[in-house]
Amino acid sequence: VMKGNKAVLLIVVIVLVALATIVYTITSFYQNNETQNGYSQSIEGTVAKIDDARILVIKGKEAAELEGQTEEEMLEGVSEAIWFSLSIDQLKIVQEMDSVRITYSKVSESFPGQSSANSVKNISDETK
């Protein structure tokens, strides 16, 4: 009877090890795969506009230069501007004219670009 139990135990251990290996391989593939990360990029800029669950982040212009301007005026002479879709939690930490650092993966080729934010950090306090 003991030999049967040992065989069952051995099979269970082998199956668990195999499953753990498969899970590890798949997760490390996704973490290291460029298309999954899309080479996480980041932008630091000013939240020029908030529209529903989207924010327009403009790099290279301070809040003082953007306030009271139309979207067209805001975008004049700017090299980088992206509309980011944010989650509800991400929206809670930003207001118009805040300085932010946003990481993202893919961005559309339009101008301003469009993307989803992976992470949002309000850096207004750091820059003052």
Explain what you see.
The chain has 128 residues and is an alpha+beta fold. It is built from six helices and five strands. It has helices spanning 2-32, 34-37, 63-66, 71-75, 88-92, 124-127, and strands at residues 41-51, 54-59, 80-85, 99-104, 113-122. Strands 1-2-3-5-4 form a five-stranded mixed barrel. A hairpin with an 8-residue loop joins strand 4 (99-104) and strand 5. The chain is rod-shaped and about 80 Å long. The N and C termini lie far apart (75 Å).
Task: Compose a concise summary of this entry.
The chain has 128 residues and is an alpha+beta fold. 41% of the residues lie in helices and 30% in strands.
Could you list some keywords that capture this structure?
alpha+beta, five-stranded mixed beta barrel, 30% strand
